[in-house]
Amino acid sequence: MATGILRLMSAPDSDVATLFRFESSTVSWIRRSGFVVAVLVVVLSWWANRAGWFEYRPGGTQFTVSILPIVTAVFVVGALIALRFEMAGGIICGFSAAALLAFAQHQLITSHAVIVVGALAVPAVLWFVVDLNTRQRTTALVVLGLAAAAVAAGFGVGLYVYENIWGPTHPESALTELPESEVEWAWSGAVSESSARVTIKTTGDDRVRLIVSEDPALEAGRTVEPESVEASVATFSIGGLTPATGYHYAVEVDGRVDSGRRGRFATFPTGPTSFRIAVGSCARVGSNGAVFDAIAATDPLLYVITGDLHYGDIAVEDRGRFEEVLDLTLTRPAQSELYRSVPIAYVWDDHDYGFDNGSALSAGRAAAMDVYRTYVPSYPLAGPRSSVHQSFTVGRVRVILTDARSARVPGVTMLGTEQKEWLINELETSSKTHALVLWFNPVPWVGDTGDDMWSGFPDERAEIAEVIADNDIENLVMIAGDAHMVAYDDGSNTNYSSEPGPGFPLLHAAALDRPGSIKGGPYSGEVVEGGGQFGLVDITDDGNSVSVTLEARNWRNETIFSHDFTPRLPAAPAG
Asked: What are phi and psi of 487, to 5 degrees?
């Protein structure tokens, strides 16, 4: 059958009643034009990538890195085939143009998407015309049908690949876009017993203030001036708050209070207390998944983001691209509602820091650093160019967040000297002064293969494990991300020290809205890959003992698995 189709597309008909009646000179001109355009398309595509001619939608850089090279290769194959069989080559080029359409419409601005797809389609159309000039009308219609089927198949394949790699993994939130406002987005973080930070972005350079009150109606609210304002992004530091108290806030722009994007947070309690932390990682660019509604519905005290807040994959030193993708992320309805209702603590991983498997060598490091410090209401950082590691205390629990990207040197160190020394000091000290230590580590700890995980840094992992063993730390829990799965280990596989025995419990919590994948292992408990998933860490502290529940849930807020354990407390923990 395939041979018959190829013969149909390659052998001219002897019947003179052809679809077109071009002169031979015209046919030769059209044929040459097709090849000239094909060569120009390939050359200009290559040059456009180098020169940065394409204008992307936020997070669209995957287009040139992963998609355009593949589509161009298919196009080149079609062009070579067209040297002998114009119709067959034209159909292949038409297939590649149609496949590219599914990506271009999502990842390029509209005008550039039209130009790119149109450029690929022109040679295909010219070769169709050349070949159809030799066909009788009946045969030509059959061949045109084959061409149309190939184009439809190309678009279908492109759309399928896009949806299964970059598309949503579960239903969207029922929340819709908020009405336009002078306030684009707002979120809170760096919460303590008596303070918090709120970062907001407005549409202009008007004067902004924050109104903060325990009253949801903001009656008798206090006014807070911004600590800093940069490029319409204002950060407010709020002090003098009461522990274990809920607060509401709204932004005042030139004397007008914006009521549409009000937010809230609760200060941390002191001493023995019970609370919940939600945790998630790995969300596609622009996600409005129902998983964010599910997280908000669990009413956590804090939401910890362990990397890949988005898949911007920015591989260049361009601050504007980092800002664009964060602006999109923070204004998506479900995410916007979550971040305004629950304070965050956030450390990045590779796709939101830079490009896949990023490190301290990533081209966009400086821009990522600057934008993080402008946009994110983080806990205190070590310096203006330090990794974004941070720590804080909730009740008698010490929370540690490490940065696995911006200080990494491939094959040498995951954390860098400064962060590693800081982490070791935190583990040694906090495990003795606090009832429990939660280490939020963005990348997989367990496993012996994979250069992008801790297995790629076995000496550094062993060094940290020795510190844990030497200090007899038995009140440590690790929560990790990156791998698109929820998974649990009871400590059977987390000990990489020279001392025999179990290590610490581990919960993997991902992916928010990315296709499933499994990394590392083995794990003693369940391993469930997929999107629309997140984790919960429930702490119960009555002053005498602490119990911990590590739970995985899906976007329906259904429990996937849950594990309880009671850590051994140090001799005299704080509180």
From this structure: -150, 160
State the fold for domain 269-565.
Answer: Purple Acid Phosphatase; chain A, domain 2 (3.60.21)
- Residue 145's alpha-carbon distances to 10, 74, 132, 475, in angstroms, are 15, 21, 12, 68
Q: How many CA atoms lie within 13 A of 374 on its CB side?
A: 18
Q: Tens digit of pLDDT per residue, the chain (575 long)?
A: 444 444 444 445 444 445 566 777 887 888 888 889 889 988 988 888 777 788 888 888 777 778 888 888 998 998 899 888 888 888 898 999 999 888 888 888 888 888 888 888 888 888 777 777 776 777 777 777 888 898 899 999 999 988 888 889 999 999 999 899 999 999 999 999 999 999 999 998 779 999 999 999 998 899 999 999 998 999 999 999 999 999 999 999 998 998 889 999 999 999 999 999 999 999 999 999 999 999 999 999 999 999 999 999 998 899 999 999 999 999 999 999 999 999 999 999 999 999 999 999 999 999 999 999 999 999 999 999 999 999 999 999 999 999 999 999 999 999 999 999 999 999 999 999 999 999 999 999 999 999 999 999 999 999 999 999 999 999 999 999 999 999 999 999 999 999 999 999 999 999 999 999 999 999 999 999 999 999 999 999 999 999 999 999 999 999 999 999 999 888 766 66
Q: How far apart are CA 30 and CA 440, in angstroms?
A: 62
> CA-to-CA distance for 476 and 174, rounded, in angstroms?
38
Encoded amino acid at 267, one letter? T
Query: In the structure encoding, which two tokens stand for residue 20, read together?
Result: 């077109």
Residues of the chain with CATH 3.60.21.70: 269-565
Q: 48: Cβ–Cβ under 8 A, 6 or more apart, which residues?
A: 54
Positive or negative, the CA dihedral 506, 509, 514, 516 is positive
